[in-house]
Amino acid sequence: MIKGLYAAASSMLSNTTRQKILAHNISNLDTPGFKQILASVGDWEKTSVTLPMGREPNMTNMAYVGVLGLGVDAVTETDDYTDGAVKATGNELDLAISGQGWFGVNTPKGLRYTRDGRFVRDAVGNLVTIDGNAVLNQNGQPIKLPDGKIVIHSDGVIKVNDQEAGRIGLFGFTEPRKELVRAEGNLFAAAAAPTVTPSGSIQQGFLEMANADAAAIATQMAVVARTYEMAQKMVQNQDDLLAKTINTLGRI
Amino acid sequence: MTSLNHVLDISRQDLQSRMLDLSVVSNNLSNFNTIGYKSIRTNFQEFLDSQLENGVQIASTQTLVKQGAIKASDEPLDMAIEGEGYFAVRLPDGKTGYTRDGQFSLDANRTVVNANGYPLIWNGTIPENFEEVRVRSTGVIEYRVGDDWTQAGSLQLYRFPNAGGLLFLGKNIWLESQASGAVQAGTPESTNFGRLQPKNLEMANMELSEELTHMMTIQRIFTMSLRSFQQTDQMISQAINMRR
Predict the structure, then answer these.
(1) Does B48 contact A183 at a Cβ distance shorter than 8 Å?
(2) Looking at CA atoms only, how far is residue A174 from chain B in angstroms?
(3) Which site in A82, A165, A219, B118 is 20 to 30 Å from B129, CA atoms measured?
(4) What mean pLDDT comes out for the span B34-39?
(5) Could you tell me if the ipTM is greater than 0.90?
């Protein structure tokens, strides 16, 4: 009886987490370079159910009945690294990566990677992100841009007034899901150095938008609402049963 | 552990961010016919607090300095900048303001002023007996007496390492800021400076379709976040009413 109560409660908890992830994905539907979070739930521990001895006549041993699930496990969050749609903006320093690869960014907290290509030339000519963190070239060094008209080629080569002024670095990870960890501000941290030479190319005047899918989120939200409601009803049912057991069983 | 109140907070934060973005887009749209207007973009970022999902935050609003379309006009002192650079005007408080709005004209004292009456910063004067004025693409202002054109002086353009970082004052005027970097003066058509297009004006630099689709996006996300907010609220109420 109590086992069932906890199983129902565990479902309420896991759906709270799922709702949080959905709200987070919705909030970032219009965030360039955002990679949505996927939530998966699975069975939690199982326990074996046995009948005590003496339950039936001549029953001298405990009888094994089967296994009982104890509810759902905590939600596992995985990052979805598929590419988002690319949007034309026409701004000189809006860059999108088509295909594999990440921009390298030097932040006060260390080296980070991002697919968010909203860059600016700062007051002293450095190529920086909208937070002012330096964007790195292929050797992991900051990029200094002279004054003038900027043209960025698909291989990352920057030309200012037709003079080569550096090259935007692209860094590749064979399995970003295992190698990268989500950090704040559309950035990702890596435990180790990039593992592969990326095959992607850079598009100037474009931005990669979020890869979250509004329709999928809406349906998942409906599922969460109903599952939570059902789990709540189950808690109440178990409670009713418990009440009946306590109040009526002992009565003659 | 996640609490439903925290989830409410994510949605609330997002609703507020969309409202702000909507006012930025409305401002862009209402300046659709403003000469030399530069559109503004709200820069959203994923918000995490020590790995905990917190929705979205606004990192900055950014002035997009791309070139606007150039349209012909009839006024002799109307000018458009094709390429980089700003006109400099003297503000009433003595500061220098920068603008891409090239609607200049002569006032009663023959001072070259912009649409707000702020004098253009240049190195010449127009004499009393002039009959006509004109601007050349290099910034030289000339006046005519009889059949003779005489050079009155010339204007310079001003550029910044990060023009998007200029501080917006209003009335189409920007101010130099720490983010923009130090101002550099130069003759129109010289390296890194745009050329002047006399008797032309630069229109606002945004696409109507782009701003309108953005507005629709904002509306959809707002609706979704609102739904999420209501649903979370309902979940809280179910949790409260679990014990009958």
Answers:
(1) yes
(2) 23
(3) B118
(4) 94
(5) no
B169, containing H or E segment: strand B167-170
Burial class (CB in 10 A: 0-12, 13-18, 19+), B53: buried
Residues B52-79 have pLDDT tens digits of: 889 999 998 899 999 999 999 999 999 9
B181 CA: distance to closest CA in chain A (Å): 4
Residue A87: closest CA among chain B residues belongs to which residue?
B210
Greater confidence (B54 vs A54) lies with B54
Report how far residue B21's alpha carbon sits from residue B24's, in angstroms, rounded to the nearest whole number.
5
Give contacts of A34 with chain B, Cβ < 8 Å: 46
Give the pLDDT confidence score for residue A63 in this predicted structure.
78
- Please judge whether B46 and A120 are an interchain contact, meaning their C-beta atoms are less than 8 angstroms apart: no
Name chain B contacts of A6, Cβ cutoff 8 Å. none
Burial-class residue A108 by CB neighbours within 10 Å (0-12, 13-18, 19+): exposed
> Which residues of chain B neighbour A13 with C-beta distances below 8 Å?
1-2
Alpha-carbon distance values, B47 to B54, B80, B168 (Å): 5, 41, 27
Count of C-beta atoms within a 10 Å radius of residue A15: 27
Within 8 A by CB and 6+ apart from B211, the residues are B25, B28, B29, B32, B39
Which residues neighbour A54 within 8 Å (Cβ) at sequence distance 6 or greater? A60
Nearest to B66 among A91, A217, A221 (CB): A91
User: Residues of B with CB below 8 A from A218's CB?
Assistant: 224, 227
Q: Where are the alpha helices (DSSP H) in A74-200?
A: 176-179
What confidence tens digit (pLDDT) does each residue in A112-166 have?
999 999 999 999 999 999 999 999 999 999 999 999 999 999 999 999 999 999 9
**Stronger pLDDT, B92 or A51, i.e. the higher one:** B92
Task: Provide the 8-state DSSP code for B163.
Answer: G
If we measure between CA atoms, which residue out of A241, A229, A239 comes closest to residue A11? A229
Q: Is A119 exposed, middle or buried (0-12, 13-18, 19+ CB in 10 A)?
A: buried
Contact A123 B4 (CB under 8 A): no
Q: What is the pLDDT of residue B113?
A: 96
Q: A-B interface: how many C-beta pairs under 8 angstroms?
A: 158
Using CB atoms, which residue from B64, B220, B239 is nearest to A12? Answer: B239
